[in-house]
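@here heads up, posting the sequence + SMILES for the adenosine-5'-triphosphate run so it's all in one place. Ping me if the SMILES looks off, I pulled it from an old spreadsheet.
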Amino acid sequence: MEISTRNLEFKYHVNTPFERLALYDINVTIPPNSYTAIIGHTGSGKSTLLQHLNGLLQPTVGEVHIGDVTIKAGIKEKNLRPVRKKVGIVFQFPEHQLFEETVEKDICFGPLNFGTPLEKARKKAKKAAQQVGLSEDLMDKSPFELSGGQMRRVAIAGVLAMEPEVLVLDEPTAGLDPRGRMEIMEMFANLQREQKISVVLVTHSMEDASKYADHIIVMHKGTVYKKGTPKDIFSSPKELIELGLDVPESIRFQLKLEEKLQQSIGKVTLSIDELARQISVYLKRGSTSQ
Ligand SMILES: Nc1ncnc2c1ncn2[C@@H]1O[C@H](COP(=O)(O)OP(=O)(O)OP(=O)(O)O)[C@@H](O)[C@H]1O
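bot reply: prediction finished. Complex structure tokens:
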């Protein structure tokens, strides 16, 4: 399923003294079975954009196409349930939203809410738990007995159990240690490859964006500054650095090498210049002594 936005603009608290323009002129496409990373500074509009991808927010101007559903400014879409089912959204620190007595009940909550019979919901929960790497013996435990990383997996499994076509995640690795971060990122990469779903995630890690994503959207002050493949985005790293964004370690290393190379080429050029000057002085001397 494809998601795209056309001239999307969004204001919080529209027509009130607190009105705030959060997004403008957003034209992006999330292709089917793709992996998109959204990067940008705090307050650049990343979370607001994510919430348009499953119809949680309605555009102030423009439209959002989610599969065959169009959400337009000024027109309330009556039935967003199919959209919510197809596009699963995981907010920052989703473990804070766990509330059931057992892991299994928490994972089953979404499917049951969408009318799936209990036994089928339990099957979906089992599969989702496997997908996020939770062992079966945890299913009867209270989610609050688990580690932070495991709790987060439970919350993600709860969204996966709805079998979404697109998984939208707001900083899914925030607060995890490097190992937990890598495990979660590998998990999304596997899900995207094996289940053929699209993954859209906000990340502050340029390493992760360059390693896992096939599309990157750079947000800046409420609009798209740049979009493209990691190669497109990181081929002009100085631009990103000027925006105050980080670049992957490998790119930083490459920049350093280039700088060093420039310096040594500079030195060679200088000595060639110097050589040329000396040759010319020598030739002049030669011509005057004849
Ligand atoms: N509920 C809200 N009411 C009013 N303004 C808001 C609200 N939520 C966000 N904003 C404003 O909208 C703009 C975009 O915020 P958003 O949260 O989308 O940015 P972000 O890039 O996700 O930031 P972060 O990385 O900190 O999560 C900011 O100026 C923010 O202050």
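MO: The chain has a mean pLDDT of 89.
MO: One more: The CA atoms of residues 167 and 199 lie 5 Å apart.
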